[in-house]
Amino acid sequence: MPRVLILFAHPALEKSRAHARFIQHVPPRDDLTFHDLYEAYPTFDIDVRREQHLLIDHEIVVLQCPFFWYSTPALVKQWEDLVLEHGWAYGSQGKALVGKSLLCLLTAGGGAAAYTHEGYNRFTIRELLAPLEQTTRLCNMRFLPPYVVHGTHRLNEVELDTEAQRYRLLLDALCDGRIDLSGADQYATFNAALDTLAQEVLR
Hints:
- α4 links the parallel β3 (60-66) and β4.
- The chain has one domain: 3-Layer(aba) Sandwich (Rossmann fold), CATH 3.40.50.360.
- With 203 residues, it is α/β, with parallel strands linked by helices.
- It contains eight helices and six strands; from the N terminus they run βαβααβαβααββαα.
- The longest helix is centred in the C-terminal third of the chain and has 20 residues, at 157-176.
């Protein structure tokens, strides 16, 4: 079974409703590592070798963060710039990440309709993640459709708890190998892949 690494990046977790609730539902498993980047590196002084060892030791990387200004929080870019070194992550000799998978697990204040070509933001979230997707592919990793929780500011407590339970189901399913990652691109979002799994579980 694959080992899963959650790279968690939230610069203001004390103000978060969704992510604060989600991380309370991280299942306690030996094959799952939760790594809070802002807690580990409050001054952005990243331990590159530590981060590289974490990547080597896991097959699936879940980048969990809020979707800020159509991108990730600043520390994620710092992490990319320093950790994904030429000759290690990419280039003719950079083979450390070959075959691994990256899943972006994001929250967005806007509703799903806002992230369409006809919507307020004009682009889909996957299109806005194009630089990260190309970085992933340059490192010979599989970029999975993003898992997005929309409209987080408007979720009531019941809806928030439902999303937190789905979050735990997703993590357990990834660790247990119950989602076919090779066929994930048939889905616009990873939410749909999880929905398919949930239906199968309920049969």
